[in-house]
Design brief:
alpha/beta; 7 strands; 15% strand; 45% helix; 8 helices; globular; 7-stranded parallel β-sheet; Rossmann fold
């Protein structure tokens, strides 16, 4: 049964893999036997991540907003390291601002990073996967794609787009053996989240009151969901958006 969750012999590409959820996913995938390639904009961060991940990992400095670099990125990985079996679209940026104060440039930057770049990379990777008739693509969406959170209009628009794209790509690619799924993280512990909520006790209490499990998640919780969606254990699962949120999205 454990073999169903093994990623032995597989190669995973994880964007934004140097920190946070991306690093947690890379760590879990490595422990499950995968070779891991992480990307991001900051080389120092990526170097430190690879030192922690070990010999089964490599990094490539890349800005997903630079669309013209993405076809070569995929070609170089496949030529130098082998076929990409798993793609995790984790890279993303947020902007917390009242909608009337968001500039066109700010809105465009969020869309370019979280949606346009994500699509362009997914397109290039999926071409290879479709040719081989196998692959797993995992999107990281958000609670912001599921209900209305204040002051995140651009971010919500981008993540709602990713959720819609997940479903369409699942319909387009699954007949050729490529599964496409998404994970919607809830409130996951990080220094930034804890700092923000500890400074706003009322908001922290509202979050926990709405969460049936009465606690925050950990990055590892997201990584275990990603492992399931990347592995053969989910071979008949495609087009889903899996909330990993302690019940926050159904809490009242």
């Amino acid at each position: 049964m454990i073999d169903l969750f093994s990623l032995e012999g597989k190669l995973a590409l994880i964007t934004g893999g140097g920190t946070g959820l991306g690093f947690a996913i890379a760590k879990t995938f490595s422990r499950a036997g995968a070779r891991v390639v992480i990307t991001g904009r900051r080389e120092t961060v990526l170097e430190e991540a690879v030192e922690k991940l070990g010999e089964s990992s490599q990094y490539i400095v890349n800005d997903i907003r630079d669309l013209k670099t993405l076809p070569k990125l995929v070609e170089d990985i496949e030529n130098d390291m082998g076929a990409i079996d798993i793609l995790v679209n984790n890279a993303g940026v947020n902007l917390k601002k009242i909608a009337t104060q968001i500039s066109d440039e700010e809105f465009s930057n969020i869309i370019q990073t979280n949606l346009t770049g994500l699509f362009a990379l997914t397109r290039e990777v999926s071409k290879k996967m479709v040719a081989r008739k196998k692959g797993s693509i995992i999107m990281i969406t958000s609670m912001a794609a599921m209900y209305g959170l204040s002051q995140v209009a651009a971010y919500s628009a981008s993540k709602s787009g990713v959720l819609g794209m997940t479903r369409v790509l699942a319909s387009d690619l699954s007949p050729d053996g490529v599964r496409v799924n998404a994970i919607a993280p809830g409130f996951i512990e990080s220094p930034m989240l804890l700092k923000a909520l500890n400074a706003d006790p009322d908001r922290k209490n509202r979050v926990l009151a709405r969460t049936p499990m009465k606690e925050f998640g950990k990055p590892e919780d997201i990584s275990y969901a990603a492992l399931y969606l990347a592995s053969d254990a989910s071979r008949f699962v495609t087009g889903v958006n899996l909330p990993v949120d302690g019940g926050n999205s159904i809490g009242f």
